[in-house]
Design brief:
By secondary structure, this protein is an alpha/beta fold. The protein folds into two domains: about 80 residues; about 170 residues, 2-Layer Sandwich (Endonuclease, Chain A), CATH 3.30.870. About 55% of the residues lie in helices and about 15% in strands. It contains nine helices and seven strands. Strands 6-5-4-1-2-3-7 form a seven-stranded mixed β-sheet, with helices on both faces. Strand 4 and strand 5 form a beta hairpin. The radius of gyration is 35 Å and the shape is elongated. It starts with a helix and ends in a 10-residue tail after the last strand. The mean pLDDT is about 85.
Length: about 270
C-alpha cells in the first residue's frame, strides 16, 4: 500500500469518527434528560479526544515512514547510479596488501616498475613462493625508448627516475629468483612457479591480483595519472562475485598483456641512458 493510500484511509476513518462525535454532540444538546445529555456529551468528547490523539500518533509514524521510504529510495537510486566517490578507493594500505600476499596461492603483479610493491613485500613474496604459491611479475622492459616514454607520461619527465627505479626492481627480482632456485635445489618440496615478464610498452594501469588458498579472488586496479591534482591515484577493487564481467575483463587484460612480454632472465641488463 502506498503512502497516499494509507493517508486516504486514515483520514476517512478519522473523519467518520469525528462526524459521529459531532452528531452525538448535537443530539446531546437536544436532550431534555440531563443524564442522557451528560452521557452523549461524554461520548462525543471521548470520540473527539480519541480522534485527536490517534491522528497525532499516526502523523508521527507516517513522518517516520516517509523518512524511511525516502532513505530507501535514495539508496536504490545510488545503487542504480553509484557515485565515483563510492567506486574509487584509496590504495590498499601496506598491511592490507601484506594480508593479501600472505594468504595467496596465486599472485599476479603488473605495473611500470613495481619498485615499492616488491621492495616492501619481498619477504612475503619469497615466503609464499617457498610455500608453493605461483607468482607472476610484469614490468616494463629496461629499454631506453620505453624509459623515455614512461618519463614523457609522468609529471617529472625524468628518464633517470624510471631507470633508477627499474634497476632497483630488477635487482630485487634477481635476488628473489636466486632464492627461488636455491630453495628448489635444496628442498624435496618444490617451490611455486616464479615468472617475470618484460612489457614492450608502458601500461596505462597497474594490476594486483590475488587468489587465496580458499579460492577467494580479488583484483586491484590502479589508474596511472599523467599529472598531479589528487592526493593519490584512484584504485578500484574487483571480485568475481560482485563484478563478474569487469573482473573477467581486467583478468583477461593481464593475460593478454602477459602474452606480449619477453621472459626475464638473470642476464637482463638495464641499458644506460
Amino acid at each position: 500500500m502506498s503512502r497516499k493510500q494509507k493517508l486516504r484511509y486514515l483520514l476517512a476513518i478519522y473523519l467518520v469518527v469525528a462526524l459521529a462525535a459531532v452528531v452525538l454532540g448535537f443530539i446531546a444538546f437536544g436532550q431534555t434528560n440531563t443524564a442522557w445529555q451528560s452521557l452523549l456529551l461524554n461520548l462525543s468528547t471521548e470520540f473527539l479526544g480519541v480522534v485527536l490523539l490517534f491522528l497525532l500518533v499516526n502523523v508521527v509514524f507516517l513522518i517516520g515512514d516517509w523518512d524511511l521510504t525516502d532513505q530507501v529510495a535514495e539508496l536504490v537510486q545510488k545503487l542504480k547510479n553509484p557515485s565515483a566517490r563510492d567506486f574509487f578507493k584509496k590504495a590498499p594500505s601496506p598491511e592490507a596488501l601484506q594480508g593479501y600476499i600472505q594468504k595467496a596461492k596465486c599472485i599476479d603483479l603488473c605495473g611500470v616498475t613495481l619498485t615499492a610493491t616488491i621492495n616492501r613485500n619481498f619477504s612475503d613474496l619469497r615466503q609464499r613462493l617457498f610455500y608453493g604459491a605461483d607468482v607472476r611479475i610484469m614490468i616494463i622492459s629496461p629499454d631506453l625508448e620505453l624509459l623515455q616514454s614512461a618519463a614523457k607520461r609522468s609529471e617529472s619527465g625524468s628518464v633517470e627516475f624510471y631507470q633508477n627505479r627499474l634497476e632497483s626492481t630488477l635487482r630485487e627480482i634477481e635476488y628473489l629468483h636466486k632464492n627461488w632456485q636455491d630453495y628448489n635445489r635444496t628442498h624435496k618440496t618444490k617451490a611455486g612457479k616464479l615468472a617475470i615478464g618484460l612489457l614492450p610498452y608502458t601500461p596505462s594501469f597497474g594490476l594486483l591480483s590475488f587468489q587465496s588458498v580458499s579460492n577467494d579472488r580479488v583484483l586491484i586496479v590502479e589508474m596511472y595519472p599523467h599529472h598531479k591534482g589528487y592526493d593519490a591515484p584512484p584504485h578500484f577493487f574487483l571480485t568475481p562475485e560482485n563484478d563478474g564481467v569487469w573482473f573477467d575483463y581486467f583478468s583477461t587484460q593481464f593475460e593478454e598483456m602477459w602474452k606480449k612480454t619477453t621472459p626475464w632472465s638473470p642476464e637482463t641488463v638495464v641499458e644506460n641512458s
